[in-house]
Design brief:
Bound molecules: NADP nicotinamide-adenine-dinucleotide phosphate
CATH architecture: 3-Layer(aba) Sandwich
Oligomer: single chain
Helix content: 10-25%
Strand content: 35-45%
Shape: globular
Number of strands: 13
CATH superfamily: Dihydrofolate Reductase, subunit A
Number of domains: 1
CATH topology: Dihydrofolate Reductase, subunit A
Largest sheet: 10 strands, mixed
Structural class: alpha/beta
Low-confidence stretches: none
Distance between the termini: 14 Å
CATH class: Alpha Beta
């Protein structure tokens, strides 16, 4: 499985249930990487989307202890699905079942963990590729991603040239599990 995240210099990812930075090119990068993929997210991350709505043209698997299985689980339109599950294991099983039943061309690498902090931390052992936008700034944060630079089981495999938006410098990087 993959994950995709935007981090600041101390691996901060959010504050007050919102993102730390808003970079249009990074949003576009996220949309391109995850289009027609299977996404796994925590309930608070779904709540943070506009209108609390699932992302279009993607399968949105949402982990929540509070929901009953099946509640609010729906095909939103032909290409958009919202599925609630109660645990990390159930999210992983559901993602693989969807691939097995619908998309023989898809692999484990078409499953993207998209946050937030609690889900990244819990699912990191199942992730082999982290797509990380590194934003060169330090901002107050209450949600963090595990620091892959100081984790010996991870290495940065590639990084784009530096880009800039309204004075914020950022790079699109990929980390691989060794
Ligand atoms: N920078 C980025 O790329 C990025 C990406 C995504 C999110 N974020 C940020 O991350 C922050 C949110 O992170 P967060 O950790 O507070 O919230 P979260 O991980 O999005 O959601 C937490 C919720 O997920 C459910 N959950 C978590 N672990 C579970 C488990 N083991 N079993 C069952 N349910 C579980 C619970 O839902 P219930 O309460 O419903 O039971 C829990 O309250 C926000 O600031 C957001 O903007 C940043």
């Amino acid at each position: 499985m993959k994950c995709i995240v935007n981090v600041t210099n101390d691996w901060g990812i959010g504050n007050g249930n919102g993102l730390l930075v808003n970079i249009p090119e990074d949003m576009k990068w996220f949309r391109t990487q995850t289009r027609e993929k299977i996404l796994i997210m925590g309930r608070k991350t779904l709540d943070s989307f506009p209108g609390g709505k699932p992302l279009k043209n993607r399968v949105n698997i949402v982990i929540s202890r509070k929901r009953e299985n099946g509640e609010n689980t729906a095909a939103v339109d032909d290409k958009t699905r919202l599925i609630y599950v109660k645990s990390i294991d159930e999210a992983i099983d559901t993602a693989h079942e969807i691939i097995d039943e619908n998309w023989p061309d898809y692999t484990d690498g078409d499953i993207f963990v998209i946050g937030g902090a609690s889900i990244y931390a819990a699912m990191l052992p199942f992730i082999d590729t982290a797509i990380v936008t590194k934003t060169d700034t330090l901002l107050p944060a209450d949600a963090f991603f595990p620091d892959l630079d100081s984790d010996p089981s991870w290495e940065m495999s590639e990084c784009s040239e530096e880009k800039e938006y309204e004075g914020l410098k950022f790079r699109f990087c990929t980390y691989k599990r060794k």
